[in-house]
Amino acid sequence: MKKIRIPIELQKMNRIFIEAGYEAWLVGGAVRDLVCGKNASDWDIATNAQPEDIIKIFNKVIPTGIEHGTVTVIFMRHHIEVTTFRTEADYKDGRHPNKISYATTIKDDLSRRDFTMNAIAASLIDGHLCDPFNGRKDIKKGIIRTVGNPLERFSEDGLRPVRALRFASQLGFKIEQKTFDAIEQTADITAKISIERFRDEFIKILSSEIPSVGLKLMEKSGTLKQFLPELASCRNVKQADARGHHCFDVLDHLFYACDSARFYPVEQATSAKKDGSAVFFSVRIRLAALFHDIGKPIVRRVEERENIGTCYTFYNHEKESVKIANCIMERLRFPKTIIQYICHLIKEHMFYYESSWSDAAIRRFIVRVMPPVAILPDKNELFVLNQTLDDLFDLRIADVSGMTNTPALMHKGSWAENLIEFRNRIDLAIQAKSAFTLRDLDISGRDLIAAGIPPGKKLGVILNKLLESVIEEPKMNKKETLVKIAKKLAYIS
After folding, report:
1. What is the pTM of this model?
2. What would the CATH number be for the domain defined by 142-227?
3. Residues in contact with 68: Cβ distance below 8 Å, sequence separation at least 6, in sequence order
4. Torsion sign over Cα 117, 119, 125, 126
């Protein structure tokens, strides 16, 4: 392939460049994706026009990175990043060049880029490719290789090694050996990147089809221990014993559980958009799956049991896992609501069910696992409840799948049947419009005050006892009945 098809919007944009006497090229990930046969909607343009020239020839221009030769052009409803041909030098902080010089050719510009697969440009005139570093060959072979010496490339920018790991996970490519070796050799440079930049690459790894590919590469390169030491410490924590529940140590179990966890595309993650955290919310189950047993190394105990032999126990590991997961996500500066929600899932992931449970027991379970609405303030309680139950069951399935690295629901036997039965009974309880919160009661605090019960702390205690009564027996959720019960409670309290 020596040409790619240029979108009509970019063809029209190119006419403006040509009329003004400039050349323009499509560069970066969009070219890589088009060469791979994928669609590309995020467009980056390289040109010999300087920022002040671009501002003159286009109507709507935002100076997003003008000090680095970059502006954003709003053209035909697209936000297109346009950067002047440039070269870079003197990366003293391991992330940003201290010296930027405008270049004269597209080949000079491509020479500063990270990987050969990203150092291909397509002319906006006819789509013909400029590929001075044989990026197309590496794409065809599925190889990630730096432009030039990997030690030099990674020493310039500490984010590049993490990007290599992410690309390997996303694209299913292999990292060329010298390039991979340089990741560990430049760990001191990688340590200088901001935690937010690492977090964003980490989230992209979790968004991959098989996250364990990138996670294992992170471990092999030392990046996992560097940024997520709590996770790395789960290696060689043995779980497999005579009971046969687990096949892997804790770390591999977490990796495979993460693989099995459902991923929600960002556009479907509408529940967290108020604080701009939709992208984090899209990987919520995978984050919960990756961290759900991270507390096991702390609580692991060895027991000798009669007729069984050596057994490994992890009592209350979910509590320790919540503490550690909370610490990690705070360190990575995740949004507070995302941290709270994922920790809630981890806390409740060890649920179980028996067919002998009463309907009241089902309702008590629902109340227990429903998180505060404040975690997702833009949705009502019923939405939050249903979403949390979906996520909690997804996490449970991922957990069991990760024990053997096979899909749990495909196992023939009682476990899957039990889980399906449990969810069906929960759905019936919700459809019956049972009371699960104080708002569902057919009475309010004002009603109780009007009935003669004084306001104060005791009033709240009474309301909660009324809710407990209604959860046990839904028929009691009538105002007259609740007033009578409340008066008795007020008298005997």
Report:
1. 0.91
2. 1.10.110.30
3. 83, 86, 100
4. negative
